[in-house]
Each structure stands twice: as C-alpha cells, then as structure tokens.
Write a structure and sequence with these properties.
heterodimer, A: three-stranded antiparallel sheet, 34% strand, B: Gyrase A, domain 2
C-alpha cells in the first residue's frame, strides 16, 4: 500500500523507528522503510554490525547516514547477525533506490521470533504511525 | 525545509550529492539572501572599518572584495565577513546571518565621532550565489560587462537583467563563481530578484544548505559557530593570513600580537578518514595512545573523495600534515590522516585550475 508518498508493503513487520523485518524463526531479513530512505535522501554511508554480533530488540545496532544526517538503526529482533549486505559499502544509494529489495541491510537468526514479533507493527499499524508522523511535516 | 538563523531554507532541492557535484562540475545557484548586508559610507567609512578589522582596508584599491574578521579585545573572532570596497567612502559588508544584528551594533558602537553612516540593507536587497566552472557562462548573458574583466576577489556595481546589483567574483564553494547582490528588492516585493533566480535556474542547478555546507568543508572554509567563534583566535583558526603584516591599530591588536608571538596550543586542520563520517563534536585521538588531542568542528562525506572529511581543532604537536590520527565515531576509533585543505585536487577542482589561478 501507499501512505502519502511512501511505500508500505503489506507482508512486512515494522518498527516505529522505520525499520522493516521479514522472515521466520530461522532467519529474518532487515532493512529501513521507504519513508526512512526518502527522509534521509542521499544515503552515502551505512554502518552495520558484523556477522556473528548479537542484536537486541529496539536497541541501536548501527547507522544509516546521508551527507547531512545520521540515522540510528534499531534492531527489530534480538538475535545473531548471519549476513550483511556488502553491496552497500560501494553502493549505499541502493538503500534509496530499493529499500525493500537490493537495499536490504542484514539477516539475523532471531532469538525468539514468536514473542518478539508481538512487539512490532503490522503494515496497517505502521501505515497509521506514518500518517501521524508524516503529518507533522 | 529547515530553520537557519531565523530563515526557512531548503537543505536540498533534489539531492545534496547531485547539487554538490553540479557546483564542482558545472554550475549551481544558492539563494543566500539571508546573509546580512551592511552599508558603511561617508568620509570616515574606511577609517572606521580599518579600525575594526585586522586586514588592510585603507590601502586597498577600489573594487576589491576583502575576506576579513571582526575581533573582540581578547583576539577572539566575532564573525567572518567579506567587505566590498566600492570606493574609499563606500563599503558593503556581507556578514553571517546569525550575526547581522550583533555586527551592526559592533560597527555602530565604534563609529562615535566618525563621519560614517551605517545602514542595514539586508531587508531591501537579495543575494544569489552562482558557483561552478560554468558560472561565467551562466551569468554573462545577464550583465552588460565582460566578466573576463572581473577577476577573483573583485567587485563591481552593474545591472543584472536590468536591475541595479553588486557583482563580486567570490564564493563559499572553492569554485569560480559570482555573488550577486540585487539592490532595491525586498521580501515584500521580491519580483526583480525572483526574475533573476528564475532565469539562472534555466541553466544552473538550485542548491540548498546541505550542499553549501559540504562544498565549503571540502574547500576548507571555516563556518562561524563551528571552526571560528569568540573563543578562537585567528592563529588557532589557521587564518593568520587575514591579519595584515605591520598593521597595529585595530581592535584586538594586542591580543593578536601576543598570539602571533608564540606557537598556538591548538590549530585548525583537515582530516580524511578511512571509513565512516566524522561529525561536529567527535573526539580526535592520538593514533598510538588513543588519548584525546582535539575535536571535530565540522564533518561531512566528500562526494569527490568518497570519504569522510572533517575540519578539527587539534593539539599543535599532533597536527603535522600527513600525521596519522584517529577520530572516535561512536564505538570505533577510526583511522585518518591530518591534511591541509582543500580536500580536492586543485588541478581538477577549484577556482585556481581556471585561468592559471588569476
């Protein structure tokens, strides 16, 4: 679906800080939403945890940066990082071009997918959150 | 849009990177009407400015655009500015927007007993910066004079699209370019300034505050409030060249003479990082011991170098050019090198590559 100018795919889970997550108890893929990418505009640098590092749900795990701004990345799930999108080293603009596709950030093995999912937003709830967030602009 | 010094201004129009590269490779245009513009006229106008500025004013010829600084008695920097010397009794000072009122007060307070008239003309004028190697090609059709005759750091009163204006070959990007002050226009009736803007953007890219900042950092230009402030003297700020040799009668002279008499404890330098982006306030660390030896004053990502770059105030003994240094970026102590800006290769970018630097 689209909320104002922003894409909100229906099959993802979301955080209030504009990250998305897709997966199951074996692996979860994580990225930032179209709203986050458009707000930052030109992403020029992405700082991600290394493979093997632990993440904690709703705690910071890295940054996505434009020339002017630093946006903290909050982990949607606790777990262990299994894969990192290395393309972003030389092509950080993929986050802008394709935030739900080639601009994915990392994959992790979640510690407790079932119960932690309940702390996240579904597409409709994220859309509502966006309505009020984007409304302030 | 973003609130800057009380003005509502765009951070970008399309993309900071695109706007930055447009200026380095072609032509970009900035609405800089927010900057303060103060007219100083009268028989003692030159004397007044000469007293307040460490740079020679009286001995300069007409039609010069002079980069300089206001100092306080302790030798700290109150503002940096460009003074356009139109004639010995007619000057226009362009100051930072955030300091317009304070600078005006400073000049007026020091003008007692002098035959000088001081006028804030910010609201009755507009200002547009046309910057980049193609900027002369963009501006030439709009002015009656041959811009080949207007050299760097020179200014002239002329017409732009028939509107009385002051054009100077100056800028804040490091590239060749012009700053156009359009007279007799106002927020209430900006028609003539808008007409000039609309004509220029037919061939130049509109650029916002984001690119303005990344360009001036790449060029190594200080920003008041970041590299320079009332607690920083020109020697520390690597602006000692602004203090004219042999000049002794200006506000702050004793403090400056003292500062020049010894090596400063800290000095402004550039830093290029291996990875990551340095930001204002990040600590600069000794490469071996990781002890703090300074602070980043401005940082950004250079679209030309594809690296994080910064200006920083560093303890002088760790500030040798080429010295290995580290910057604390969140949990990492990222490796970098001390350099002297500009950060770009001056054979490829910057105004000096054109016309053999004339």
């Amino acid at each position: 679906m689209r909320v104002k100018n922003y894409d909100v795919p229906g099959d993802l889970l979301y955080t209030k800080e504009h990250e998305w997550a897709k997966g199951s108890e074996s692996v979860v893929k994580v990225g930032v939403t179209d709203y986050a990418a458009k707000t930052l505009n030109d992403v020029v640098y992405v700082s991600l945890p290394k493979v093997g590092e632990r993440t904690v749900q709703s705690k910071t795990m890295g940054t996505v940066e434009s020339i002017k701004a630093v946006s903290e990345l909050y982990s949607p799930f606790s777990g262990v990082v299994t894969k990192v999108n290395d393309d972003l080293n030389s092509h950080p603009e993929l986050v802008n071009k394709s935030p739900y596709g080639e601009g994915w950030l990392l994959e992790l093995k979640p510690a407790d997918f079932e119960s932690e999912s309940k702390n996240l937003l579904d597409a409709d709830s994220y859309a509502k959150h966006l309505e009020s967030t984007a409304h302030k602009e | 849009m973003f609130e800057f010094a009380g003005y509502d201004m765009p951070v970008w129009y399309t993309s900071i990177t695109d706007e930055h590269l447009a200026v380095r490779n072609g032509c970009g245009v900035f609405d800089v009407s927010h900057m303060g513009r103060i007219r100083v006229t009268g028989a003692d106008a030159g004397r007044l400015l000469d007293r307040l500025l460490p740079t020679n004013i009286l001995s300069q010829s007409d039609a010069k655009a002079i980069y300089t600084i206001f100092l306080n008695e302790r030798g700290g920097i109150l503002d940096d500015l460009v003074v356009m010397k139109l004639s010995s009794d007619n000057y226009l000072a362009v100051v930072n927007a955030i300091n317009t009122k304070a600078d005006l007060k400073h000049v007026v307070e020091n003008s007692q007993g002098l035959d000088a008239s001081i006028q804030d003309v910010t609201e009755s004028s507009a200002m547009v910066a046309v910057q980049g190697p193609e900027s002369q090609r963009v501006l030439q059709p709009l002015v009656p004079l041959d811009l080949n005759e207007l050299k760097r750091f020179r200014c002239v009163e002329t017409q732009v699209m028939g509107q009385r204006s002051l054009v100077s070959r100056t800028g804040y990007t490091g590239e060749d370019g012009f700053e156009v002050i359009v007279y007799d226009t106002s927020e209430v009736n900006p028609t003539s300034a808008l007409a000039i803007w609309e004509k220029v953007v037919e061939t130049a890219k509109p650029c916002g505050l984001g690119a303005r900042d990344s360009l001036r950092i790449e060029a190594g230009y200080p920003l008041y409030g970041a590299e320079i402030d009332a607690e920083t003297n020109p020697v520390e700020a690597d602006l000692a060249w602004v203090v004219s040799a042999g000049k002794t009668s200006y506000l702050g002279h004793e403090a400056i003479a003292e500062a020049r008499g010894s090596t400063p404890a800290r000095i402004r330098r550039g830093i290029v990082l291996e990875r990551g982006i340095p930001r204002n306030g990040f600590e600069v660390l000794d490469n071996g011991t990781s002890q703090p030896v300074g602070k980043v004053t401005s940082g950004t990502f250079s679209p030309v170098l594809h690296k994080g770059i910064a200006m920083a105030l560093i303890a002088t003994e760790r500030a040798e050019l080429g010295e290995r240094i580290r910057v604390r970026v969140r949990d990492s102590a990222v490796e970098g090198r001390v350099v002297k800006p500009p950060f770009y290769d001056e054979k490829i970018y910057g105004w000096k590559r054109l016309n053999n630097g004339k």
